[in-house]
Amino acid sequence: MSFGKRRPRTTRAQLRPTHPIDINQGRLARQRARLVRLGVVAAAVVLTAVIVHGSGPPFTYRLGQRPNRDLLVNVEVFQRVDPAKTASEKQAAANRVAPILVNDPAPIRELAEGLADLIDAIAQAPSRENLPENLLLEWDLLDQDGFEELRTASDTPERRDELHRGITRAFEPVIRNGVLGPDVLPRAEDGRLSLQVRTVGPRPAPLHPVSRDDFLPERIKKADSQVAKQFLAAFTSSQVGARLFRLTADKLAGAATLTYDEPATVRAREAARDKIHEVLDTYRKGDVLVLQDQPILENQLALLRLEHETAAAHLTLAARLRRASSVVVLVAALFALIAYYVFRHEPKLAGDLRRIVVL
User: Fold this and answer.
1) Run of H or E including 6
2) How much of the chain, in percent, has pLDDT values that exceed 90?
3) Confidence of residue 11 (pLDDT cuts 50, 70, 90)
4) Which CA distances in Å does 202 have to 104, 105, 109, 262?
5) CA dist., res. 227 & res. 249, Å (int)
6) Side-chain half-sphere exposure of 173, counting CA atoms within 13 A
7) Model pTM above 0.90
8) Is 55 helix (H, G, I), strand (E, B) or coil?
9) What is the 3 state secondary structure string of 164-218?
10) Phi-psi region for residue 178, left (φ > 0), alpha (ψ -120 to 50) or beta?
11) In angstroms, what CA-CA distances link 60 with 63, 70, 233, 309?
12) Measured distance CA(169)–CA(205) in Å, rounded
């Protein structure tokens, strides 16, 4: 037991600052610290709520998942592009475009001029033997009967001029449509029933369709072909027309004038494809997307995702605000629970702003 002088205990009132200004400054500093901590927590709440909310309701289905109920369309209607049908429609449109060929009718014009020169020579020669040798070699199918028939048809200047006009008319369809040579078309285009032909010249003519009977050499030289009928119709005497066609049929079939224009054909088919709109499959409310207990396939998953995106896009502003508010309240409640635990059991952590920011 000590009998020394006892040291008086310092009271709590003596530890507090006695100056009113110091008391206010301390109180303000503590308030600012609390506000900063609350601000950090509020910012964390908002950021977490934004992350949880995301762009909308979550998409919960996965590839291979087996739903325990039928998955139905919940929106009024939505549409999806069908790639297979779209590709099929585009290809069908491209296939309808006939190959494009360029017609250079110079060989046919030369043949028509040669036939006109033969008529002039026949009109001036007393007999077939008096024709120039080069004409006899060129027109070796001209026999004596043919010579006499053509000489009679051109025995006067008027009849000769009419025969010349008939020759011009007879060759016009062939000059316009052209003649297809061997191996001009690719194998994939060889079975086409029609072509598109453009005639070259100072003023290129527009494309026009031509049927097989009008450009195939083996069809052109037949007496019952469309070309033969047009040829004979150009003359006042069908007998004279038939005689001239027999003279020129083989030469006409051999005068190939058409060439395949692949770049123009490709461009025309691409343009036809571009004109076809995408084929859409329509799904309405109540349509079954996935049957119960069936695995979700890749195509069905894409449908479910599109239906989900459509539903999210049609959410009203009120529905979006309700969901956002619910998320904020839920996150704030979780943060309040954590804050209570920290305040009760970790007071040092609660008073350290740096640790709060790190957390």
Assistant:
1) none
2) 30
3) low
4) 12, 13, 16, 22
5) 10
6) 19
7) no
8) coil
9) HHHHHHHHHHHHHHCCCCCCCCCHHHCCCCEEEEEECCCCCCCCEEEEHHHCCHH
10) left
11) 10, 15, 78, 12
12) 18
- Is the pLDDT at 163 greater than 60? The verdict is yes
Q: What is the DSSP letter of 68?
A: S
Q: What is the mean pLDDT of residues 149-172?
A: 92
Instruction: Label residues 75-111 b or e (16+ Cβ within 10 Å = b).
Output: beebebeeeeebeebbeebbeebbbbbbbebebbeeb
Comparison of pLDDT for 37 and 81, the residue scoring more = 81
Which one has a higher pLDDT value, 7 or 227?
227
Task: Kindly give the interhelix angle for 226-233 and 157-177, rounded to the nearest 10 degrees.
Answer: 150
Task: Look at residue 23 and tell me whether its pLDDT is greater than 90.
Answer: no
Distances (CA, A) of 137 to 110, 129, 141: 16, 12, 9
| Burial class of 206 by CB neighbour count within 10 A (0 to 12, 13 to 18, 19+) | exposed
Q: How far is CA 28 from the centre of its chain?
A: 69
CA distances in angstroms from 293 to 116, 168, 282, listed in the order given: 85, 79, 24
Sign of the dihedral through C-alpha 175, 176, 177, 180: positive
First CA to last CA distance, the chain: 53
User: How far apart (Å, rounded) are the C-alpha atoms in residues 294 and 224?
Assistant: 66
The answer to which of 80-94, 229-243, 313-327 has the lowest mean pLDDT is 313-327
- The CA–CA distances, whole Å, from 2 to 5, 6, 7 equal 9, 9, 12
Q: Which two tokens stand for residue 248?
A: 């020129």
Q: Which residue has the higher pLDDT, 269 or 53?
A: 269
DSSP label at residue 228: H
Residue 64 CA to chain centroid, in angstroms? 32
Q: What is the pLDDT of residues 311-348, one digit of tens each?
A: 777 777 776 677 677 777 777 777 677 766 666 666 66
